[in-house]
Amino acid sequence: MKSKLTFLIFLVLAMTSCEKEEFSIKKDTIQVTIKNTDTYSYSTGKGGEEEGAQIKRQANNFEISEIRRDHSTNFVAVYYYKPKPNFTGKDYIEIETYQGSDGASPSTYINTVKILINVTK
Hints:
Blueprint: H1 2-17, E1 24-35, E2 40-43, E3 52-57, E4 62-68, E5 78-83, E6 89-99, E7 109-120
Parallel strand pairs: 1-7
Antiparallel strand pairs: 2-5, 3-6, 4-5, 6-7
């Protein structure tokens, strides 16, 4: 009986002393005003090998709405938005960025950026 109790105490101590993995979700909102002839860009700052970005909710009134991550952005994920010609009004995009993965495990830090775009003449 004593050995079973010792084993249970050891098991509980081992489980409670394990380091808990931190996981963080952050949400930001950005409001911008651009002319309908302009192209807006937003740098996510994510350029590491295990970091990423994706469009979670696409804009509605765009000629260009994409994330580029290539030599032109120094391999940092940058979002570009250009409204449809002659469009004025409000548009909305949601981008999700990821970091904190070691390549074998999922990202531990997720940031959702909501960009509210007011397009004027």
